[in-house]
C-alpha cells in the first residue's frame, strides 16, 4: 500500500467532484476528501445514497457538500456543460475530479456479448467520462492545480477471457488518460489513473459471487493513493497509471 499520510486540512478550500459517490469506493473517497477539508460535489444516479453521504459529511463536521443526481447512461453533453457552468458560478473553479462511476456489464464469452450491453457499458464507462472531462476542463484550468483521476482496472492493462466490454472500456480509460495527459503536460492540470485492485464492494461481489469478501481490502484501505492524487503533493505527477494495491497479484482474490 502507498505509505502516504495526508496532512490535516490538505484539501482545504479545494472543490472536488466525485462520480459514483453514493456507494463503494466513490463513497469512501468523497468522505475522506471532505474530512481533509474539501468541498465535495457528489454525483451519482441514486439520490438517496448521495443524501446519506451528504449527511455523513455534515455530521462529521466537513464542509457542506453539493449533490448532483445524474444518470451517466442517459446524460447529454448539454447536461455536463450545464454542470460545469453551475460549478463555475458557485465555486469559481474545480480543483479535482475523480471519475469513479462504472458499470460491469455481463461477463460472457466474446461472441455472446450483446450490442445493447456493449453500448451501455461504453456509454457509462467511456463516453460519459469523455463528455464530462471536456466540459470540466475550462473550470479545472481555473484552479491553481487541477487533478483529473480516472479509475482503471487490472483488465484495462491486460485483457482477460470473459471480461468483455468492461475490459475494453478500461483500456479506453487508460488511453483517454494518456492522450489527455500528454496534451496537459506542463500545464496546471494533470491526469492520472488509479487501478484500485480487488476491493470489498458490490461490483466485486457481482463479478466474484463465490469469493469471501473478508479476504479483500476495503475501500478505506485504498484511500492514501486517492488522497495523494488530489493533494498538491502530486502536482508533478501526470500520465501515470498507479496501483492502490501494488502488492497484489492481478486476478488473485487474496492480497499477498
Ligand atoms: P460499485 O458498483 O460498488 O459502485 C459504482 C458506483 O458507480 C455506484 O455509486 C453507482 O451508483 C455508480 N454508477 C454506476 N452507474 C452509474 C450511472 N449510470 N450514472 C451515475 N453513477 C453510476 O463499484 P466499486 O466501488 O467497486 O467501483 C468503483 C470503481 O472502481 C469503478 O470504476 C470500478 O470499475 C473500479 N474498480 C473496482 C474494483 C473492485 O474490486 N471493486 C477493481 C478494479 C476497478 P449506484 O450506487 O446508484 O448504483
Automatic annotation (TrEMBL):
Instruction: Report whether Oxidoreductase shows up as a keyword of the record.
Output: yes
Q: Give yes or no: UniProt keyword Oxidoreductase.
A: yes
What are the alphabetically sorted keywords of the record?
Oxidoreductase
Among Pfam families, the record links this protein to: adh_short
Q: Recorded GO terms, molecular function? A: oxidoreductase activity
- Domain of life, source organism: Bacteria
Would you identify the family this protein belongs to, as annotated? Belongs to the short-chain dehydrogenases/reductases (SDR) family.
The record's annotation in NCBIfam families points to: PRK08945.1
**The protein, known as:** NAD(P)-dependent dehydrogenase, short-chain alcohol dehydrogenase family
Look up and give the organism this protein is from.
Ferrimonas marina
Amino acid at each position: 500500500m502507498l505509505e502516504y499520510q495526508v496532512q490535516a486540512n490538505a484539501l482545504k478550500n479545494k472543490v472536488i467532484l466525485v462520480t459514483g459517490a453514493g456507494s463503494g469506493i466513490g463513497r469512501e473517497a468523497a468522505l475522506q476528501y471532505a474530512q481533509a477539508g474539501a468541498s465535495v460535489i457528489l454525483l451519482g444516479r441514486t439520490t438517496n445514497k448521495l443524501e446519506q453521504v451528504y449527511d455523513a459529511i455534515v455530521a462529521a463536521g466537513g464542509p457542506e457538500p453539493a449533490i448532483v443526481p445524474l444518470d451517466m447512461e442517459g446524460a447529454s453533453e448539454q447536461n455536463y456543460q450545464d454542470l460545469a457552468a453551475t460549478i463555475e458560478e458557485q465555486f469559481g473553479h474545480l480543483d479535482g475530479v475523480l471519475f469513479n462511476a462504472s458499470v460491469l456489464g455481463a461477463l460472457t464469452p466474446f461472441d455472446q456479448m450483446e450490442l445493447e450491453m456493449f453500448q451501455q457499458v461504453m456509454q457509462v464507462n467511456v463516453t460519459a467520462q469523455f463528455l464530462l472531462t471536456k466540459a470540466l476542463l475550462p473550470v479545472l484550468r481555473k484552479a491553481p492545480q487541477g487533478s483529473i483521476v480516472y479509475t482503471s482496472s487490472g483488465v484495462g492493462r491486460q485483457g482477460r477471457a470473459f471480461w468483455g466490454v468492461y475490459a475494453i472500456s478500461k483500456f479506453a480509460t487508460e488511453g483517454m488518460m494518456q492522450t489527455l495527459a500528454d496534451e496537459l503536460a506542463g500545464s496546471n492540470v494533470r491526469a492520472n489513473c488509479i487501478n484500485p485492485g480487488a476491493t470489498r464492494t458490490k461490483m466485486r461481489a457481482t463479478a466474484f459471487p463465490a469469493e469471501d469478501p473478508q479476504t479483500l481490502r476495503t475501500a478505506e484501505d485504498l484511500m492514501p493513493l486517492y488522497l495523494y492524487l488530489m493533494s498538491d503533493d502530486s502536482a508533478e505527477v501526470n500520465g501515470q497509471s498507479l496501483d492502490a494495491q501494488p502488492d497484489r497479484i492481478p486476478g488473485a482474490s487474496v492480497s499477498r
